[in-house]
Amino acid sequence: MANHEGVRVDVAGILRQLEDNGFDDVRVEFVSQGTDESTVLDVAGRGVAVANDVAAERIWGAAPTASIAGVSVKLMDLSDLDAVAVWLEAFVGELRAGGLSGEIGATPLVRLPEWISQLAEPMVTAYVALAAPALGVGAGAGGTADDWCERAVEWASEAGGEAYLSSAGMNQLDTSKDVAAHLSSVLRASSSGALRYADEGASRAAFVQIGPNGQAVYQVHDPSAPQTVQVERARAAIIAEAAQAHFAFVAPTPHQAYAWDARSRALPPLRPEVTAAALRGHAELWSRLVPDAHGIQLLTQEHMGLVSDLSQWTVIEVTPGRFVVEAPDLTEWLRPEGPANSTLDKARADFGRALASVDDLR
C-alpha cells in the first residue's frame, strides 16, 4: 500500500477489481479520517476534475458518489494501466491540498441476489411525489431528507433480511445499524438512490427508490402474503409520506420499478396522452392534476377542487390538506388484467377536470 503523505493508496486492490471487471472500469473509494462529509465530497469533486485533466484521453473519473464508508469514483475509458497510477497521483494530490487524509482502495461492491433481479410477477407499487432530494425531501412540511430516509428504512426493513444500497450503478451490502444515515449520504451526493431489503429464505423483499425530481417508488414482493396485505403496505407508504407528498397512487407493476417510467408497463394502461416521459418530465403538474385514475390515490386540496364526483369513492383526510381516495372495489383495480373498461371510464369521469389534458402535457 503506497503512502502519499497522509493518504494511503491500495493500488493492488484497485488493480484486482479492475481485472475482475475485465479492465473496463473500477470504482475507487476514499475513506477520510475525521473530516465532515460535505467537505470530503467537495474536495473529492475538485480532485476528480484535476485528475481528469491530468490524465486527459487516457482515463476518466465520474462525479463522486457516497459509499457506505466514504466517497466513491468510477474510473472508466482506460487506455492503459499506467493511466490509473497517473490519475490516482493527481487525485491524491488534490485531496492532500484540501487538507484531507485517509485511505484509497477499491470500493467494496456486491451483486444483487439473482433471485431479486429475476422477479417478474406484478408487485403492488406505490408511486409517491415528494420534494426533490437536492432541496430536502419533505423540507418544511414534515422534516428533512434525513427524516425521509428514516421512514424509508423503517418501511422497507419490515421485509427483513439484508439491506442493499444502490446509487449511480453501484450496489453495496450495508450490515451496519446506520442504513438511514448512509441512504442520506447517497441522496446528498447524488440526489437519487435506492434501498432494498431482501430475505432470500422467505423470498421476501421491499424496494424504495427516489429520483432527482423527488418521484419515489415503493414495492413489496412477498408471495406468502395475500394481496390485501401488499395493498396495506403500499397504503402505509403513502400515508407515512402524506404530509410531505403532493401526489401518490398505487398500481400493480411487473418487475422492479426504478422510476415512475415503470408505470407505463402497469395495468390499466395510461391514457394515450400520458407517456412515461410525461410522467417524469411534468413532475410539477402532479400537485394539482393527476395523470390518470387509480384505485388508490393521495390528493391535495387543489386536486379535490377539480374532481367531478367522488361520492362513490372512500375519501379520508389523513393529514391537513391531504386526502387518500380509494375506489369502492379495490379488487377490481388489482386484477391481473386490470379493471374493466367500464370501471376505468367511470373513474376517469369521476376525476373530471383533475385529469391532465393534452395541453397541460405540452
Short description:
The protein has eleven helices and 17 strands. It has helices at residues 11-20, 37-54, 82-97, 114-117, 145-156, 179-190, 227-240, 276-281, 301-304, 330-333, 341-351, and strands at residues 2-3, 7-9, 25-32, 60-61, 65-66, 71-76, 102-106, 123-129, 162-167, 170-174, 193-199, 204-210, 215-221, 247-253, 296-300, 314-319, 322-326.
Topology at a glance:
Layout: E1 2-3, E2 7-9, H1 11-20, E3 25-32, H2 37-54, E4 60-61, E5 65-66, E6 71-76, H3 82-97, E7 102-106, H4 114-117, E8 123-129, H5 145-156, E9 162-167, E10 170-174, H6 179-190, E11 193-199, E12 204-210, E13 215-221, H7 227-240, E14 247-253, H8 276-281, E15 296-300, H9 301-304, E16 314-319, E17 322-326, H10 330-333, H11 341-351
* N-end to C-end Cα span: 57 Å
Number of strands: 17
Beta-strand content estimate: 15-25%
Main beta sheet: strand number and arrangement?
A: 10 strands, antiparallel
Spatial strand order of the main sheet? 10-9-11-12-13-8-14-15-17-16
Cα-atom radius of gyration: 23 Å
Main structural class: alpha+beta
The total of helices stands at 11
Query: What's the helix-strand series?
Result: EEHEHEEEHEHEHEEHEEEHEHEHEEHH
Please estimate the helix content.
Answer: 25-40%
Q: If you average the pLDDT, what whole number results?
A: 93
Determine the oligomeric state from the structure.
Answer: single chain
